[in-house]
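Person: Show me a sequence?

Helper:
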Amino acid sequence: MKKIKPIIITGFPYAFPYYFKVFEYLKNKDNFVFVLPKLWLAKAGKIRIKLEQKPDFTIYGLKSMSYGGHLIRGLFKGWLPGIFFLLPYLKIKYDAKVLYSCSEPNLLTTLCNGIIAKLCGLEHILFTWQNVVSEDRMTGLKLKLSNMLVRLNFWFADGVICGNKKAAKIIEELRSKKHELRILVSPIAGINTEKFRPLSRADIISDWRQKLGIKSDEKLILFYGALDKRKGLNVLIDAIKLLVTNYQLPVTKLIIVGTGSEEESLKLQVKSLKLQDKIIFLDWMPNDQLPALLNVSDIFVYPSVPSGGWEEQFGYAMAEASACGIPVVATKTGSIDEVVQDGKSGLLVEPNNPEQLAVAIYKILKDDDFAKQMGESGREYILNNFSHKVIASKIEEFLLRFTNK
């Protein structure tokens, strides 16, 4: 008897174990087949992810044509050429009904998947994070070609999963009203709230603080992520200078974790402001080490700024901090307000404003009860809205709707 698996999922984001973890919370894993890159390279090849078979999952591995880049390589990011031959086989073997491509509508990768899906008689679902309209990101011929590709991808699609509410609004305005397109607002995965949770600080605090050379009475401010201009870390460093000089917070340390193009520039800024004893840089860390570091922190700061037509599209780091019960200070840009509840789980300030950032940090650091209340509200919000369990249920229910057509 044929084993029926109606839903096929592909897309390089799910090569990352952190994102694939969401599927462990599916109600019926037997409904799904995964087609993923055998090898995925990230952060300019510094991170190599080899595909591993997982118990309870049906997974096929294919070679990726491109890991991203400029021009044509960028347009084919995550493209698995072998899917042209594999998809018809999977359609017959499992009586598949749906192909979900976790791939943006401005990529040729998505278009190729959409075409082969239709040739195989499959419903096609795609994904987008894009929360800024094309006209604010590009002009001229590039804008026209991009919009043409996006609309073409919508034509070959039956549904779209949007990573944030602003993306859903953009899709509604771009799609053809003559073409039915179902929309779900959900990130590609949730937060592992079993791993990112409040820990007994006594178990970890002395070890981490000893490693970092931080005294027990010092308040710890944390950031982790890419060290590039979009993250606004130069603004955060200026805010730390204000905290030290204007707010007289002598027992405060900022930990910056990550790598990126702005690393040397940021270190020079720290030196010029004479903050070497206040700011510590740490290299990129595996995700498994972050819960402990979050739990020894007093506040998580994410000073993201708009950059070149880009704005923050979700913010997993902020959600992880909230899941650990840590209050968050972030900026009013992009879709951050969908992750951080201003005045409840954290405080939001205007981007590129070190004065507002310093005031918000000070307000939380000076009031332990206020900080604790925010941390508790943040964890509850993430549990109810962005845990792996919640997101898996939303994605599963949405995709199954297309199997009944």
Remarks:
- The first strand starts at residue 7 and ends at 10.
- The domain at 7-190+387-404 is CATH 3.40.50.2000 (Rossmann fold).
